[in-house]
Every structure is written in C-alpha cells, then in structure tokens.
Amino acid sequence: MQTVDAGAFRVEFLRITHSIPDACSLVIHTPVGTVVHTGDFKIDYTPIDGETIDFGRLATIGNKGVLALLSDSTNAERKGYAMSESTVGDVLDKLFVNCTKRIVVATFSSNVHRIQQIVNSAVENGRKVAICGRSMVNVVETARKLRYIQVPDNSFIDIDDIKSYPDEKLTIITTGSQGEPMSALTRMASGEHKKVEITPNDLIIISANPIPGNEKYISKVIDDLMAVGAEVIYNALQDIHVSGHACQEEQKLMLSLIRPKYFIPVHGEYRQLMAHAETARKVGVLPENIIIPSNGRVIEITNKEAKLTTTVPFGKVMVDGLGVGDVGNIVLRDRQKLSQDGLIIIVLTMSKNGKVVAGPDVITRGFVYVRESENLIEDIKKILRQELDKCEEKNITDWASIKLILRDSLHDYVYKKTKRLPMILPIIMEV
After folding, report:
1. Would residue 411 show up in a list of annotated catalytic residues for this protein?
2. Which of 64, 70, 77, 170 is least buried, going by the fewest C-beta atoms within 10 A?
3. DSSP string over 342-384
4. How far is Cα of residue 365 from the mean position of the Cα atoms in its chain?
5. Cβ(264)–Cβ(294) under 8 Å?
6. 72 phi and psi, to 5 degrees?
C-alpha cells in the first residue's frame, strides 16, 4: 500500500476488510510515536474480493511500539465475531434457486461486495439485473468500470426495459434498505414509483439491518409491501445481512496485535465507546491510558502523557439553497417556531411625535384561519389599541419600547386564549 509524507508525519495505508472495497487503516508515524486509526473494519478471513488483512504488518507495527490506537466501536456491545460477507451469498443462492417470482433486493449502495453477490446469484439462475435508485446506479457504474463488480456485460438491463422480461427472469437491485422517505423502495411500496410496480408476484429481500433511529421507517415499508401482497424477506427471517464492523473478539485481536500505550475508542455512541474501553481493559490496556473524549475535545499526546486540552468547533454544517453554513441555531429556532405556532404581524403608522395615524392592522400566517377567527382578531386589535393609548398617555415615543410593549402584551393575551406562542412581529411606519 502507498505511504504519504505530510509535513512531520508519514502516513502508511494498510488494507483492512469492511463492507466497501479498498478500505484502509491509517498508520501515522509521528516524531513522538506511531498512531494507528483502524477506520471502519471487521476481521473477514474470506472477503469477496480476496483481499485479506495483512496481519503480519499489523503485528510488526505492534512489535515496534504504538503510542495510540483509535479503533472502530460500532459493534463494541456485541460478543463474538461478525460473520463473513461470503455467508450472505449462500443465503441469497437458496432464495434465488427455483424462485418463480420477480426478485427485488434492497441494500446499501456502498456495499459493492453485497451487490456482487446479488448479481452472482441472479446470473447463476438465468436472471437479468436492473439497477434502481440514483446512488445505486452511480456506484454500480463506477464499480464496473474499476472492475470491482465483475459479471458478463449482458447481465444488466436498463430499468426501462423490465417489462420486456418475465418475472422469473428478472432481478432488481435498489436503494431504500433504511426506509428513507424518498428512496426507490419506499416509493415502490407506496405505489409512487414511475417504473416499478410491486405485485403479489414479487419477492422483496431487504439485505440490511436498521441503523438506530430508522426502525419505524423500515417497518412501514415492510407493512406497505406486504399490504400489496408481496413476499418480504428481512434479517429477522433470514441471515441476509452481516455487519461490516468488528465485534468484541475481533476488537480484542486488533488490540492484541497493536498493543497500544494509549487507547481511544471512536466511531460509536457513548455506550459503545464505554464497551470498547472495557474490552481494552480486559486485554491489558491500563485504565488510566484509556481516553473517551466528547466531540470537539482536543487530545494532546506525547511519549510521556496523553491529556484532554482545548475544544474545537464541531457539529452539523447546514446546507440551504446556495448557502453553506450560514444557517445557524437562531435561524433554525425561528423556523421551528414558525412551523409550530405561526406568525402574527402588527402593522401601524405613527407620526414623529408618537401619535397613531393608522392601524393597528393584524396579519397572521400559520396561526389561525382568519375567516373563522374574526372575533379573536378584533380582540387582538382592541388589546393593541389599549396598549398604544397607554403609551401615548405616558408620552412613550421610542419605537423600540413601543414594539416591546405591544409584543409582550399580545404574547400574554394570545397564549391565554389559544395556548400557542406564535412569533409576533410589530412593524411601525412613519409619516
């Protein structure tokens, strides 16, 4: 693998096995010691592409001494080993053999090895393969060019041509294994897909596990597919998915080969980082040398100590229209408030000496249906007139103060009447 010089660092790329091709760990040689970042990994002795981990090189690096190890914690709570990717192919073969239905398989578009196995099963059973979903089309096209997916050229057909083939001669590989609202499989399930219509003669295979938080979306897709009459196979029924992340025994092997002085579990929820830290303690890493930082914390490591120091900015960068990062928490808070409770605009015209010339007029958006709430709008105007009269009596002419008084009085009245908190925007014009 290639080695890259970056200033005082020398970065060595070390092949690792994962659910994508060409996954690498980083071995970062620094003036104070070697730092290893595993990246996403699993220990797969029989990977689809035949590119196994160079355990000898990992052991050599460990023997020379490693200052710190940063390691994937996604499956730190799972005991044992992650199954080899090749085991999925055996299950797929059994599902494809003698099946007379059209087969639709949903999986991660990035999992090229899974796609290869789906295509293998389809070709071996005399089926043509159509690709559906933008990311899936892009990945398959690129993977075929780079020869990561190797099948006869006539195996693939365009999605527009699927009606030209009988169901028993057709396989569709699609996105949407996580039930994403606009994904191809979700649109198929709801009957909104322009090119694929699900029928009772379809076998749907969802070859993925739910990412935490997506369970309800996937459940709805499965329910919708079954309501149409399709047969649905998912991981609870068949072993048609394996994780691309190391379980506890694989994490122990990585720790034992690298033997780091300091250990930093990464890539996981806090409970997973804690579980990985416990695994590290079991294989001999000193508890005081295990660091679990929060997002944004800076860790300074020397050959004598490792400590948490400053904090750097972190979090989501919002993309909105042509703007990148220009929408912050305040703007999002305002949008949320508008979407929940609506907007009230107060418009009035005042003279320079503070007397009301026209108004107040009340305009609402997303608050109440005006034609059915005329009494409420009139009461709001009455409250505003009373507050303006008080301001005039007290000789309050500062517009900022008047706006604040109107906003506060209307806020209290509206909440008392409706239990809603709309955004209130007073506008004063001068004549």
Report:
1. no
2. 64
3. -EEEEEEEE-TTS-EEEEEEEEEESS--GGG-HHHHHHHHHHH
4. 33
5. no
6. -60, 125
CA 97, CA 315: separation in Å to the nearest integer?
Answer: 48
- Render 16-35 in DSSP notation, one character per residue: -B-SSTT-EEEEEEETTEEE
pLDDT score, position 1:
66
Tracing tokens 């020397």 back to the chain, one arrives at 302
pLDDT beneath 50: ranges in the chain: none
The pLDDT of residue 173 is 95
Residues with Cβ within 8 Å of 378's Cβ and at least 6 positions away in sequence, in order, are none
Phi, psi of 402 (to 5 degrees): -65, -45
Residue-wise pLDDT for 355-369, tens only, equals: 777 778 888 888 877
What string of DSSP letters covers 80-97? S-PPPTHHHHHHHHHHHT
Round to whole Å and give the CA distance between 287 and 282. 10
How many beta carbons lie within 10 A of that of residue 52, not counting itself?
A: 14
Q: Are 124 and 193 in contact (CB under 8 A)?
A: no
If you count DSSP H runs as helices and E runs as strands, how many of each does the chain have, helices first?
Answer: 11, 19
Q: Which of 82, 84, 83, 85 has the alpha carbon at shortest distance from 247? A: 82
Active site residue 239: no
* Nearest CA among 415, 413, 423 for reference residue 341: 423
DSSP 10-79: EEEEEE-B-SSTT-EEEEEEETTEEEEE--S-B--SS-TT-----HHHHHHHHHH-EEEEEEE-TTTT--
Query: Alpha-carbon distance 249 to 427, whole Å?
Result: 66
Beta bridge partners, 156, equal 129
Give the pLDDT confidence score for residue 63 in this predicted structure.
Answer: 94
Of the candidates 18, 37, 44, 72, the residue annotated as catalytic is 72
User: Do residues 255 and 279 touch, judged by C-beta distance below 8 A?
Assistant: yes
What pLDDT was estimated at residue 367?
81
**CA-to-CA distance for 389 and 355, rounded, in angstroms?**
9
**Backbone region of residue 179 per phi and psi (left: phi > 0; alpha: psi in -120 to 50; beta: other values):** left
Residue 163 token pair: 């009606």
- Active-site residue identified among 37, 193, 245, 276: 245
Listed residue (374, 426, 429, 381) closest to 405, CA to CA: 426
Q: What are phi and psi of 405, to 5 degrees?
A: -65, -45
Amino acid identity at 176: G
127/171 Cα distance (integer angstroms): 6
Q: For strand 202-206 and strand 102-106, is the pairing parallel, antiparallel, or unpaired?
A: parallel
